[in-house]
Write a structure and sequence with these properties.
Elements (H helix, E strand, L loop, with lengths): L10 H54 L12 E3 L4 E6 L10 E8 L4 E8 L12 E7 L1 E10 L3 E3 L10 E8 L10 E3 L7
Antiparallel strand pairs: 1-2, 2-3, 3-4, 4-5, 6-7, 6-8, 8-9
């Protein structure tokens, strides 16, 4: 007669199976945790990239569609090193006017890139009357505007009666270590539709 093996597993076999199962669960947990951290990082980077891309397109459109003035009326354009005021059209967004507006762009005391606008009227009115304000981007330490003149090169204040052939916008951010954003260079006279 042969010895019969009892039905079931020995204690050693059960402990070995539990140890292997524990290692698999621990590895799976670490893999899921790493995947979730990578997902969150990618989402944050994509969201930041989307907002920067939107601001880039908005700034390009504002400058590209600025009113260059005419033979009898010079361009209504104020170009300083930190602020820009112009007559332009706003990007196509629901609830926004599609006709010309007086717009100004600058960084406020709360470190926000702000667009202020009001409908353009040919009649004089008080300088600060009826402006709407939109935050384009938060966490902006500063904005540097430069203007290209064919005889002067890049200058920080534009003093001519006509609009500059090129405008460069450089943004710096408040977060330390944030990678710099490429300069936005727009040719107002040539980027018009």
């Amino acid at each position: 007669m042969t010895a019969r093996r009892p039905n079931g597993f020995t204690l050693i076999e059960i402990l070995a199976a539990l140890a292997v199962l524990g290692l698999l669960i621990a590895g799976l947990g670490q893999g899921i945790g790493a995947g979730l951290r990578a997902w969150n990082t990618a989402t944050k980077m994509t969201d930041a990239g989307d907002s920067l891309d939107t601001v880039d397109r908005t700034l390009r459109r504002l400058v590209a569609h600025m009113d260059p003035g005419g033979a009898t009326e010079p361009a209504k354009f104020s170009a300083k090193s930190r602020t820009l005021a112009l007559i332009t059209t706003l990007p196509d967004m629901p609830g926004m006017p599609t006709n010309r507006v007086e717009a100004s762009l600058g960084v406020d005391v709360h470190q926000r890139l702000v667009l202020r606008w009001r409908p353009y009227l040919r009649t004089p009115r008080p300088p600060d009357a009826g402006y709407h304000e939109i935050e384009l981007l938060g966490g902006v330490a500063g904005m540097q505007l430069d203007y290209w003149g064919s005889e002067t090169g890049w200058v920080s204040d534009w003093r001519a009666d006509d609009i500059p052939p090129l405008l460069r916008i450089r943004l710096t951010f408040t977060r330390p270590g944030q990678r710099p954003w490429p300069d936005i260079v727009v040719a107002p006279e040539f980027d018009r539709p």
